[in-house]
């Protein structure tokens, strides 16, 4: 199990200082807006403070992979009107839409009884696997998807339509979920191939469910912004993982 750091003021002060320094050095990178970097510093402090450097680094890997895939074919996506705004830079709403669920689970894990920690970490890992799956599927699908259809009706639609899927995008979602799961395993957040398979599978399922929400509800309910839907997707992934872990690994919850 991931070794959790001591929850004392000195550790949290160190987490704040380290993240302040790193954000100061990294803010010139074309990844986040200026406000996005500030919020990333808050996020990083909470993650380092609750899970230590391994949990923090897992989310840095998520950010790096998500930013990299966003830049793939960016010029062509911009020509088609499908590129992310702000040259692909993420703002505070993107930071928390992706990471709020995982952050809450991290804060719970550092205070929970030992028996509950593996469940919370599985939910943490699944939330980011689902979000990277969504990013990979969206960015690859709308640029290289050959036949894009609405997930609820399989009716052909234009790339970038809410709820649209393609074979290429779905394969990219599976790859994104797998890469995030491997990173979580390599850093010790989750352990064992059965749990890794569960987290990776849940990441893909939650991404497909997010497409269903986009196709059926998001276009009708204005309050369902992309950030809200992202939060719901990561919450679904976390809840599914935590519900299935005791079934997959009896005695773990």
Question: What is the overall silhouette?
Answer: globular
For the secondary structure, the number of strands is: 2
Distance, first to last CA: 13 Å
Computed over alpha carbons, the radius of gyration is 18 Å
Estimate the mean pLDDT confidence.
Answer: 89
Helix/strand order, N-terminal first? HHHHHEEHHH
Main sheet specs:
2 strands, antiparallel
**Strand coverage percent:** under 5%
**Percent helix range:** 55-70%
Strand order of the largest sheet: 1-2
Low-confidence stretches: none
Find the structural class using helix and strand composition: mainly alpha
Query: What is the helix tally?
Result: 8
Pfam family, one: DUF92
Keywords: Membrane, Transmembrane, Transmembrane helix
Protein name: DUF92 domain-containing protein
Transmembrane segments: 53-74, 95-114, 196-217, 229-249
């Amino acid at each position: 199990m991931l070794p959790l750091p001591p929850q004392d003021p000195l550790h949290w002060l160190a987490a704040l200082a380290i993240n302040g320094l790193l954000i100061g050095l990294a803010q010139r990178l074309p990844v986040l807006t200026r406000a996005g970097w500030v919020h990333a510093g808050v996020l990083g402090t909470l993650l380092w403070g609750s899970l230590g450097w391994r949990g923090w680094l897992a989310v840095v890997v998520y950010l790096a992979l998500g930013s990299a895939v966003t830049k793939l074919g960016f010029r062509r996506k911009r020509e088609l009107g499908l590129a992310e705004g702000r040259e692909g830079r993420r703002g505070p709403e993107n930071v928390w839409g992706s990471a709020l669920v995982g952050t809450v689970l991290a804060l719970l894990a550092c205070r929970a009884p030992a028996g509950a920690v593996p469940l919370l970490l599985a939910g943490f890992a699944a939330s980011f696997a689902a979000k990277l799956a969504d990013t990979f599927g969206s960015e690859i699908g709308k640029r290289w998807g050959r036949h894009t259809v609405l997930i609820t009706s399989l009716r052909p639609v234009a790339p970038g339509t809410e709820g649209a899927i393609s074979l290429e995008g779905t394969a990219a979602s599976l790859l994104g979920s797998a890469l995030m799961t491997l990173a979580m395993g390599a850093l010790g957040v989750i352990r064992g191939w059965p749990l890794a398979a569960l987290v990776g599978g849940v990441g893909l399922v939650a991404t497909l469910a997010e497409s269903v929400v986009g196709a059926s509800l998001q276009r009708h309910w204005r309050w369902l912004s992309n950030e809200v839907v992202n939060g719901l997707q990561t919450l679904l992934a976390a809840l599914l993982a935590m519900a299935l872990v005791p079934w997959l690994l009896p005695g773990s919850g």
